[in-house]
Amino acid sequence: MGTIDIAIFIVYIIVVLGIGFYFHYKNKDAKDYYTGGNKMGSWHIGLSVVATDVGGGFSIGLGGLGFLMGISGSWMLFTGLLGAWLSAVFLIPKVISEGHLFNLLTFPELLKRKYGARVALLAGIISFIGYLGFTSSQLLAGAKLAVGTFPELSVNKAVLMMGVIAVVYTVFGGIKAVVYTDTFQWAILMLGLILIGIPISYVELGGYEAIVKVLPDGFLSLTSVSWVQLINWAVTIIPIWFIGMTLYQRIYACKDEKTAKKAWFTAGLFEYPVMAFMGVLLGLFARVGAEQGMFLADGFASATAMDPEIGLPLLLKNILPAGLMGLMLAAYFSAIMSTADSCLLASSGNFITDILGLNSQNNKNIRHSQLATLIIGAVAVLLATLMKNVLELMLMSYAFMVSGLFVPVIGMLYVRKPSGKAALWSMIVGGASTLLLTFLKIDIPFGFDPILPGILLSAFIFYLISKQSRDHGIFTA
Questions:
Q1: Is 325 helix (H, G, I), strand (E, B) or coil?
Q2: Are 320 and 200 in contact (CB under 8 A)?
Q3: Residue 97's Cα: distance from chain center in Å?
Q4: CB-facing half-sphere around the CA of 379: CA atoms within 13 A
Q5: How open is the CA angle 341-310-387, to the nearest 5 degrees?
Q6: DSSP state for residue 305 in the 8-state scheme
Q7: What integer pLDDT is reported at residue 49 of this predicted model?
Q8: For the chain, what percentages of helix, strand and coil (3-state, to nearest 5) are there?
Q9: Contact at 8 Å (CB) between 173 and 21?
Q10: pLDDT reported for residue 56
């Protein structure tokens, strides 16, 4: 990268950090820090939601899917649209008024009101661990992008660089800094993809005929994906819209139910088709570049020898002229940090509110919140240095949270007298079974992900113990 690119990127970093420091002086207590005082509007929240959900993991991960399977990989984010719209209809009306009335900061606090303290504590632990892993996946995504652009960097050095930037402004600014930097970063990302990345890649690769000539069969088809893969994506991604701490924080941050619903419908449309097709298309272009021998100077003679997730940054490095590389790098760092900051804040909120049980109305607790965010961020950086695959780490974090929390949340919403004991054991069985199946690498029939039997076992335990509790008049943990 030349001097112009580096200067552009430095200006971008200064603006992002500046937003964080600005809102540092606007936060009065932990409620301001985690939910923005319940006064935020739909446009900023909606963009923040989609920026968080798509973010770096899906941006780099979708690029990897486009590299491996073409535009059929876009179906992954169709499940994001479904999740956003389903939660707007079925979740938001049931939780936002209660969140505002009781000044809630996290979704385990809702579980506490329905099931009791032990259930809320376990939910907080599961969510905390899940979002810690998810934060790490975003930092790893940023590291892969940086290494592809700056070959002299190691992955660990790149992780440290990304971690410091994302952690600093999140620690100081809280949810307001996260949401407003997300809006700014989303604008940068869209500008980079629509006006720079896609059109220049298309021209540099030789246009439609040259692209089609080297692509494997099925890469331009939407049907080159199995029904098992679609179900795996659906059961992993759709439920996260009902149990994600980052999403509950934004529901609570909205002014009212109408604002929250509008934000969620907006986020869904940006997920699919907008980001879905742009992400896989750039990955597909990277595959074309690899097949054309564009990456020979980088040590890759063919696509088969490459990590699919490194193809996209290598493509950008080889096709973008001075000045535009800086803008495009800022665009992808925007995607990465807009998710990392939200997940970091969610994990911090779970730790402070649900695990330690500190009072959100105590002004001193904003310092505790900032300290927790800093420490958790450091742990996330360390974890990121130990992992290799962005999408694998991200989906594993999703699976752990969903299998443990989805069934109790549905029970909270729709069971008239939900059993705390049933919720507690369904969380333990669901989360533990998914982890065991994953780490032991046990094959599931038809190729389903371990999350599916985890959810089914969780549902069975919830039903069985709920029935016993009704028979004996027991409803709390």
A1: helix
A2: yes
A3: 25
A4: 17
A5: 55
A6: G
A7: 86
A8: 80, 0, 20
A9: yes
A10: 59
Backbone angles phi, psi at 95, to 5 degrees: -120, -25
Residue 40, beta-bridge partner list: 254
How many CB atoms sit inside 10 A of residue 365's CB?
A: 20
Name the DSSP class of 223: T
Domains and CATH numbers, the chain: 3-400 (1.20.1730.10)
Nearest C-alpha neighbor of 357 from the set 45, 89, 63, 108: 108
In the chain the first and final C-alpha atoms are separated, in Å, by: 58
pLDDT in tens, 71-83: 999 999 999 999 9
Enumerate residue ranges in the chain where pLDDT < 50.
none
SS3 at position 199: helix
Task: Give the CA radius of gyration of the chain.
Answer: 22
pTM score of the predicted model? 0.85
Q: What angle do CA 55, 403, 234 make, to 5 degrees?
A: 55
The amino acid present at 387, given as its one-letter code, is: M
pLDDT at 204 (0 to 100): 93
Picking from 436, 425, 440, the residue whose alpha carbon sits closest to that of residue 477 is 425
Put residue 37 in one of left, alpha, beta given phi > 0 → left and psi -120 to 50 → alpha: left
Reading the block at residue 349, the tokens are 């909120």
pLDDT of residue 360: 53
Rounded to the nearest 5 degrees, what angle is found at the Cα of 116, between the Cα atoms of 112 and 117?
80
**Dihedral sign computed on CA atoms, order 249, 252, 257, 258:** negative
DSSP 8-state class, residue 301: S
CB 235 within 8 A of CB 452: yes
CA distance 53 to 58: 8
Say whether 176 sits in a helix, a strand or coil.
helix
